[in-house]
Amino acid sequence: MSAPHLQSKALRDEGAPHGFFGRAGGVSSGIFSSLNTGLGSSDDPANTAENRMRCREALGADHLLTLYQVHSADVVIVTEPWSGQGPKADGMATRLKGVALGVLAADCMPFLFIDREAEIIGAAHAGWRGALAGVLEATIQAMVSIGARADRIAAALGPCLRQENFEVGPDLVEAFAAKYPQAEQFFAPGLSAEKRQLDLAGFGRSRLAAAGVPTLDDIGVCTLGDSGDYFSYRASRRASEPDYGRNLSAIALSVK
To answer: Same structural domain for residues 71 and 192?
Structure first.
């Protein structure tokens, strides 16, 4: 049994097996219902293993790799599969076929990448810290280092926290503007004078455009706004839940 998932037209046009998975199609229960794929959660490991297997089978991959994500700009080149949580990093790139690169998110941005001509894929997890630190650019650079070209890369952004639900303090405006003066355009007035609303997805798209990526598809789903179908960290906090599930976004190269 494989799990249901959304797909990006841009990645589908490139022939890349991929998926943006939400809550549906798994075996977990309670606050993790039902397709929690987070190895770092307090869910039953047997359930997360089954859920991850269903995602892997949906992609037709032999292996599904995820990272011990730390909100960094660190990216690894995958030369062989691993088991468990993997290295501490927030981006991956590989030429290996039959290996699905996955990132976990519950409000942060999940990006998937492919250069079909070079047969190189990538994946990145980008919360505001990672995006500001440059994890998206670093993932593109890692792909280029093993033979990709930025101007051939197609990318897709999956479900994440969107501007209408992403309220932050003015300190974040200052942090972004200090590094990117033009970043103020990604902040709108908040519900109170002390708050702002961050268009992190817009910022992420702008960073990829600056890196020379010509094709970017945005699924457009908000994890908090659609928390019945997707895990959301902020929704879990509002409900005073002790933990939260993780959505998987993953891409593979077809085995020919």
So the answer is: no
C-beta of residue 218 within 8 angstroms of C-beta of residue 157: yes
Q: Are residues 48 and 172 in the same domain?
A: no
What is the phi/psi pair of residue 202, to 5°? -65, -40
Residue 68 has pLDDT above 70, yes or no: yes
Residues 89 and 152 in one domain: yes
Domain co-membership, 105 together with 174:
no
Q: What is the pLDDT of residues 96-139, one digit of tens each?
A: 999 999 999 999 999 999 999 999 999 999 999 999 999 999 99
Domain of residue 33: give its range: 9-162+202-251
The amino acid occupying position 156 is: A
DSSP class of residue 88 equals B
Task: Kindly tell me if the per-residue pLDDT of 9 is higher than 70.
Answer: yes
